[in-house]
Amino acid sequence: MPKSLFASIAALAMVATACATAPPVPEGADPILDRGRTVWANSCASCHGVAGGGAKGPKLNEGAVLVSYPLVEDQIELVTTGRNAMPGFAGRLSEADIEAVVRYTQEVLAVTE
Ligand code: HEC
Fold it and tell me: Which residues sit opposite 89 in a β-bridge?
């Protein structure tokens, strides 16, 4: 296979992988955000889109979650108790995991395009 074709395929594969994974936590950031990213991928991405672009649940990225939930504690309350078709996660996730995922949405997802 010609080298350039191989490079194009490799680049495409990387783009595909990037689309299918939750936005990464910047290096050196608080490790709680890595935990939040894992919780996001397992418990939230199915409804909100892996990058938070919205699907069954509303869009949270590109600053959207910071408009609706500027305060971490308010979003923790929402994720714990739920609202309409948004399930409550009390009893399904620990308080530490809820705090981690909320901080991930506010500090990583919200600032991702
Ligand atoms: C079963 C699908 C589903 C799952 C799983 C889910 N959500 Fe939601 N989420 C929704 C829906 C639907 C709404 C809109 C609720 C409403 O209309 O009141 C929502 C609303 C929200 C909102 C408020 C958005 C706004 O603009 O008002 C936030 C924040 C949120 N979800 C975060 C999360 C987080 C964090 C998780 C994972 C712990 C999660 N959601 C898991 C469906 C889901």
Answer: none
